[in-house]
Design a protein that fits this description.
Keywords: ATP-binding, Ligase, Manganese, Metal-binding, Nucleotide-binding, Purine biosynthesis. This is Phosphoribosylamine--glycine ligase. Its EC number is 6.3.4.13. This protein is an alpha+beta fold. The chain has four domains: 2-98, Rossmann fold (3-Layer(aba) Sandwich), CATH 3.40.50; 128-195, ATP-grasp fold, A domain (Dna Ligase, domain 1, 2-Layer Sandwich); 200-333, 2-Layer Sandwich (D-amino Acid Aminotransferase, Chain A, domain 1), CATH 3.30.470.20; 342-426, Alpha-Beta Complex (Glycinamide Ribonucleotide Synthetase, Chain A, domain 4). It is built from 13 helices and 23 strands. Strand 15 (279-290) and strand 16 (293-300) form a beta hairpin. The longest helix is centred in the middle third of the chain and has 21 residues, at 254-274. The chain is globular.
Length: 441
């Protein structure tokens, strides 16, 4: 098989690494890929002439797939999905993993997503949507007379910057002004969802989805994972795209899993079928778990990042075969197998992240040390340069530079291996959290 993977982050690196393990794979192109995907077995990067979320970019990729006779395309990030790349490829009779544009609204529009949850009885935080900044401000002011916090969500895609937890009315006022009046997020923030703040611990559930109009659908969940979003130890500081992840989550019990399936997964599947979505791909359920009950915070219509870097190293099934049964609507019969291990994946970030950060710093990697630790690197914001230390040639190109994923027989062993491996990577300004997977993280 020939495969095209669209994307350039750590998630895509992990997907490419896992796909390449299949004996059915002959060659993988990654558009545009990064400094890590460039070195994976059977893999080469494909430079992009235009953004895949634009008509021009999608047409270029479609023509490449047709010319190279690519057997399968897998979309990593959300923007091309929201822009309808799946619809375009399927109209051309090309095999592609992802939801159609209609289904992608579950992530692309928080307003639509919340209305979907309410319509189909998905347990979620109470919320209200606004397009009028005056009315939104009045609602926020009233909230703080009764409750200490308020979650503000931009309606559209905002590259991880569209959710703010306001600790007081002044913060809420500043956020609403920035989103709705100043246009700091462009059109994405012109409409907002104001949502109650839920107590508990966050859990991420990635899942395979095979829903096609007129046929019985299936959502098959993966093992649980947990992202650590705050920048500093003890869950302090600003939200980020993710400072690290673990899988599975030790405190996510079988009773919690059953509650998730009954209260969130099952009604979501019912809604997808009722809405006649063509959703053949992956989904991310962002959960808040409190006293054994799960509430849905958000859908993502693709695999999570950095959760994928912790989940895929534990998958004992062929990812290519999983993609095929998703497309063939035979997912119900597919047995997902998992290693009886744990994975810890701390993320190394550039100095200043999630604010402004430098680029182009050489990354020193000791592959012998990494190998001894039993860990592996998933590159995110790094590209191949010239003359990197120790022959790596990698240079920083983003805020989240790479993840170090390590498996262990216990959560503690996985943590120890990951942080042992971390000693063998270095770049100027390198920073990370020391408590990924720890109780207070």
């Amino acid at each position: 098989m020939k495969i095209l993977v669209i994307g350039s982050g750590g998630r895509e690196h992990a997907m490419v690494w896992k796909l390449a393990q299949s004996e059915k794979v002959k060659h993988i192109w990654v558009a545009p890929g990064n400094g890590g995907t460039a070195d994976e077995e059977k893999t080469e990067n494909l430079p992009l002439t235009a953004d895949p979320s634009t008509e021009e970019g999608q047409q270029a990729l479609l023509e490449f797939v047709q010319a190279e006779k690519i057997d399968l395309t897998v979309v990593g990030p959300e923007a091309p999905l929201a822009a309808g790349i799946v619809d375009k490829f399927r109209e051309a009779k090309l095999a592609i993993i992802g939801p159609d544009k209609k289904a992608a609204r579950l992530e692309a529009s928080k307003v639509y997503s919340k209305s979907f949850m309410e319509k189909y009885g998905v347990r979620a935080a109470k919320s209200k949507s606004f397009t009028d900044p005056v009315k939104a401000l009045a609602y926020a002011e009233d909230n703080f007379k009764k409750k200490p916090k308020l979650v503000i969500k931009a309606d559209g895609l905002a590259a991880g910057k569209g959710v703010v937890i306001a600790e007081n009315f002044a913060e809420a006022k500043d956020c609403l002004s920035s989103f709705m009046k100043s246009g700091s997020l462009g059109d994405a923030g012109k409409s907002v969802v104001l949502e109650e703040f839920l107590q508990g611990k966050e859990v991420s559930i990635l899942a395979a989805v095979s829903v096609k109009p007129g046929k019985k659908g299936v959502i098959k969940p993966f093992i649980s994972a947990r992202d650590h979003k705050r920048r500093f130890e003890g869950a302090q500081g600003p939200n980020t795209g993710g400072m690290g992840a673990i899988a599975p989550v030790p405190d996510f019990s079988s009773a919690c899993e059953k509650d998730f399936i009954d209260s969130i997964l099952a009604p979501t599947l019912k809604g997808m079928e009722k809405e006649k979505m063509d959703y053949r791909g992956f989904i991310f359920f962002g959960l808040m778990v409190h006293e054994g009950k799960c509430s849905l915070l958000e859908y993502n219509v693709r695999l999570g990042d950095p959760e994928t870097q912790a989940v895929l190293p534990l998958m004992d099934s062929d990812l290519v075969l999983l993609c095929r049964v998703i497309l063939d609507n035979t997912l119900a019969d597919f047995l997902l197998k998992w290693k009886k291990e744990f994975c810890c994946a701390p993320v190394l970030v550039a100095k200043g992240y999630p604010g402004a950060y430098p680029k182009g710093n050489p990354i020193a990697i000791n592959p012998t040390g990494i190998g001894r630790s039993g860990a592996r690197l998933f590159i995110a914001g790094a590209q191949r340069g010239q003359g990197g230390p120790l022959g790596s040639g990698l240079r920083t190109a983003g805020g989240r530079v790479l993840a170090i994923s390590a498996n262990g027989a216990s959560a503690d062993e996985a943590w120890e291996k990951a942080y042992e491996a971390l000693r063998f990577v270095d770049f100027e300004g390198m920073a990370y959290r020391k408590d990924i997977g720890r109780e207070d993280g």
